[in-house]
Amino acid sequence: MENTLDLTNKYIAKTYNRAPVQLIRGAGSLAYDAAGNRYIDLGSGIAVNQFGIADPDWIQAVTAQLSCLQHTSNLYYSEPTARLAKILCERTGMERVFFSNSGAEANECAIKTARRRAYLTYGDASHSTIITLRGSFHGRTITTLSATGQDSFHTEFGPFTGGFVYAQSGDIEDLYRLADGEACCAVMLETIQGEGGVNVLDAEYIQAAWELCQQRDMLLIIDEVQTGNGRCGSLYSYMHYGITPDIVTTAKGLAGGLPMGATLFGSRCADVLTPGSHGSTFGGNPVAAAGAVNIINRINDELLSGVLQREQLIRDLLAGANGVVDVTGRGLMLGIRCAKPAGEIMAQAARAGVLVLTAKDKVRLLPALNIPTELLQEAIEILKRVIAE
Ligand SMILES: *Cc1c(COP(=O)(O)O)cnc(C)c1O
User: Fold this and answer.
1) Which of 160, 193, 216, 234 sits most deeply, having the most CB atoms within 10 A of its CB?
2) Among 200, 182, 148, 154, which residue's Cα sits nearest to residue 329?
3) Minimum-distance ligand 1 atom for the alpha carbon of 190
């Protein structure tokens, strides 16, 4: 008998360490596997299913578009895509959007834009360097790996794209030292480093990076691939800091479970990309765009205050719990440092019916933004038991 686990292990590239779980369906924050086991999902497919699994309202929006037209190239106009761009710009104050299909692509587009803007300003590549942070994660393409400030990503796939320098995260002086050392065109950062271990950057540091960029005519690029789309209690996490980034990138939860990336441009770079300078076959796909319109329109004040209430519930339940060292993050992007190895907790929690993720040495929680509080409470009690064991 051919089963999915055997077929996967035999025929799919071995890039992932998978848990022996095959999810086949779900409803909201509950998922079921092929054997009928029930799981409370605190991972959302890595911050993707913003309103959970098979959300009826989202399905309605997506299928309505799917039955009209599944794809049109970017040689023509597309209503849901245009509407989504307008909503994103109105909600952020940004001026234009480029649509792609993933976080890595959204970041590639940001990098190209920063470099092209510097090229158009100086007439050459003299200001091509981009400062990123140690512990960051920006994607898996060669260039976004190069941008990723973790040495472990910089082996065996070289030569890497040049022109990235890495600042010690949280160290304002180091940022200035790098900007003084080389002519730079941008700083790129995550307000909370997700893959890097749910590391929260100080508000003071983020504001200093913004000031530096304004002083030196550099662009501030905020990578909101994971932190965005309501995840941290505001539509985009930068909105907590009273700053105006020049570029915001997002993907993961944007379309609620369909592949979509977006690069939002502010006034300093809205017209840098011109016909032929960038593109994507699938970018702005109407079905994904219809899904994203549904998701973004539902991320309102009420939903966002619910995200912060759920964060507080999780923090209250975990406070002083046996084996919990500390909790980092904001909104529904939380990291739990535990006495026990995070990988062990993830596996044991799955066996106990709770799906969680890890980030470096922490257990990471990224539940749906509308997870019912009773389910959340049930899941955290199970998780606490596993952590304490
Ligand atoms: C996941 C992630 C990416 C990469 O997104 P993909 O869609 O996997 O290409 C980039 N940046 C951050 C902050 C991420 O969390």
Assistant:
1) 193
2) 200
3) 13
C-alpha to C-alpha distances, 162 to 125, 175, 348, 381, nearest whole angstrom:
12, 18, 42, 47
Separation of CA 222 and ligand 1 centre (Å) = 12
329 forms beta bridges with 334
Q: State the average pLDDT for the chain.
A: 97
Confidence of residue 153 (pLDDT cuts 50, 70, 90): very high
Mean pLDDT value across residues 324-346 = 98
Alpha-carbon distance 140 to 160, whole Å?
Answer: 12
Q: Name the pTM for this structure.
A: 0.98
- The CB density around residue 48, as the number of other CB atoms within 10 Å, is 20
Rg (C-alpha) for the chain, rounded Å, is 21
CB neighbour list of residue 35: distance below 8 Å, 6 or more residues apart: none
Q: How far is ligand 1, taken at its centre, from the CA of residue 237, in Å? A: 15
Q: What is the pLDDT of residues 105-114, one digit of tens each?
A: 999 999 999 9
52 with 41: CB under 8 angstroms? yes
Question: Which residue of 141, 195, 201, 364 sits with most ligand 1 atoms within 8 Å of its CB, as the best mutation to test the pocket?
Answer: 195
Task: Name the residue among 278, 291, 279 with its Cα closest to residue 251.
Answer: 291
Closest among 370, 323, 350 to 49, alpha carbons compared? 370
Quote the CA–CA distance of 353 and 30 in Å, as a whole number: 10
Whole-Å CA distances, 3 to 8, 172, 227: 9, 53, 36
Condensed to tens digits (0 to 9), the pLDDT of residues 276-330 reads 999 999 999 999 999 999 999 999 999 999 999 999 999 999 999 999 999 999 9
pLDDT at residue 12 greater than cutoff 70: yes
CB distance 223 to ligand 1 below 6 Å: yes
